[in-house]
Amino acid sequence: MPARNKGQLALGPGLLRIGALGTPEPTDLITPWDPGFGEIGYTKEGSKITYELDTGAVEVAEEIDPVHIAINSRNLKVAFAMMQLTASNLKVALNGGTITTGSGIVVFEPHGPNEDQRIMLGFEASDGTERWVFREGLQTGNVELDRKKGSEAANIGNEFQLARPAPNIAPFKAILSAPKRA
Fold it and tell me: Do the beta carbons of residue 13 and residue 46 sit within 8 Å?
């Protein structure tokens, strides 16, 4: 059990990034991110990583307690609400589409069914002590644009479900500063 150490608290929203599948991943905490990982921009309340297991008890007639707990599935998600209403962010939230620029305008049109674009996500803590790479994500949440009065700016909600990009490759990796985050 680790001792109490306030230096190990993870504070702040950090910075989110997005890249095409196969974009080179960071291998440490100091090398700049590959230019293929662009910044997502402002978020409403930062981001949330969810790791959820669906389990089942293996029961037998001869025992009162389960003899094993089996994992049926694993659900990994990254959720955030983008505050900058741009064609690029609409393309992220709607899993692809076409952006066309004209004289003083930019036009976004979503793709049709079965043309969804899967992406990579990256996260870097504000204090530089952690980086996360999510290797394949598909935005599966509802996209709602709330337009309200006053200081409530519109935002684009996202909930990316993560998948294993290939056999023997984990869906994500976390790079943490040692010894601070060991």
Answer: yes
